[in-house]
Amino acid sequence: MAQNQMPDNLAERPSAPQLFLIFTRIGLTSFGGGLSGWMLREFVQRRRLMSEEDFLNGLSVAQALPGVNVTNMAIWIGYKLGGRNGAIASWLGIVVPAAFVIVLIGSAFASLSGYELSHVALSGAASGAIGLSLAMGLTAARRVPRRVFPLAIMAATFVAVAILKWPLLWTVLGFGSLSVAVTYRDG
After folding, report:
1. DSSP character for 32?
2. Calpha distance 15→161 (Å, rounded)
3. In principle, which of 58, 62, 74, 129 could form an S-S bond with 94, CB 3.0–4.6 Å?
4. Distance in angstroms (rounded) separating the CA atoms of residues 32 and 43
5. Which family is it part of (predicted)?
6. What residue spans define the domains of the chain?
């Protein structure tokens, strides 16, 4: 299938302005690391604009590239659904409106930082973001082939980063390169 072509059973592609509005809503209504979960729900489950497999492949690429994963993912989805203009519109939608809101909220929290309620609100938002990230991680883990090598790479990466505190860059480059090489060799 061509790069920007979709299977027949999926919905019609949105225009660049529609992508801007979709990503503006996602960026303004989502918190923390859960944005990829919102994107999965929006583009795969709700709008059926891409398959779960395409989404997770894009998420893998977005996480492997430098920069903010969510921004990378917005650009990837925008490009996949609308070419260059879709990528630009998606990037603007996920970044610009949320940046304005962050500045406003940051100013408000700075003036309210002496109150306990502001700390409680931030803890609640962090808990919600962790839950969304966990849900996204479980969705991605479901798709990992149930073979020894992929599961071993997943476990080794977790141990190296979370327990041994190895540098993320070198861990991902090492285990990622090994995983790609073995997967390429096998088929």
Report:
1. G
2. 40
3. 74
4. 19
5. Belongs to the chromate ion transporter (CHR) (TC 2.A.51) family.
6. 16-143, 146-187
